[in-house]
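input
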Amino acid sequence: METKHEKLANVLVAHSTQLQPGERVLIEAFDVPESLLEVLIDRVVAAGAIPFVDTKHNRVLRKLYMNASEEMMQRWASWELDRMKQMDAYIGIRGSNNALEFSDVPSDRMKHYQMHIWGNVHRHRVAKTKWVVLRYPSSSFAQSAGMSSAAFEEFYFDVCGLDYAKMYTAQLPLQKRMLEADKVRLTGKGTDLEFSIKNIGAVICSGEKNIPDGELYSCPVRDSVNGVIHFNTPTLYLGTRFEDIRLEFKNGKVVNATANNTQKLNEILDTDEGARFIGEFAIGFNPYITKPMLDILFDEKIAGSFHFTPGQAYEDADNGNRSAVHWDMVFIQTPEYGGGEIYFDNELIRKDGIFIPTDLHGLNPENLK
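output
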């Protein structure tokens, strides 16, 4: 009988990255147990691929970020990018003993990290390799989710072991509708946004890039966003917690932004010209994820949610926006969070977190579990 680690390794190697003989894969692990890495290496080798492993620790990274000059970040990024260019695939496993580990790193140091390391290396990895990123359960993660460590670990492996082939099939009608849509309207408490997704594209996410998964993303036409959104979930960005984020848009640009930490929010949005424009619009529907837990790989998949992302656009659903920032902000439209609607060209697509058209019923929670 397979262990939980073996099942997870099989998903990562056989489904997410579909590793082939001779392919080189970088396994980048942040604060995760060696036992998982041992199992994953065995599975990579069994597939005939070649594993490269880099283990990192967030407390050590914090110390480096605190003391790094921009020149050091540039050199570090150059080294990381050269290594990534030699890889065919990437598996990133991110654990954390403290979700706020980077909260006291000065904004200018984190900006250098965003621009040089995250920006250059991340962009190449996304565009040029087969990749998957996942979190690993920890006591800190369980605490953020409001669960015991044992209950959270069981929840985690249930979520990660979802039938992603079934989810893929259920997404096809929604993808067709998004590919054909022009105008989108999003409503909710304190929120009324309108924008176009005409000719942008729509990408199914069913376990190939993220574990857990459960979203379908597109992107607004860059200058088409108008209105206001008042996000109803907290968010972590570069180690800082933000709540009560409210963004006003005019012709695509964030013209006013407030939050519990308005100054730092605007510092991030002023990173570069593209940070005040939107690079992604996505609809979430993982049936096992129903509340925020301050981890974006989970929160952006919440059933009945959507996320709206200042910054960099993905090349497979591209509006041309370029930025060192890519900040997924989540809005939940279930009744517990005040409800809300999604419209495509004036047709009601989802209300209070439930898909309305018959062809989309397969994405409702009772049909995905």
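quick obs: DSSP finds eleven helices and 20 strands in the chain.
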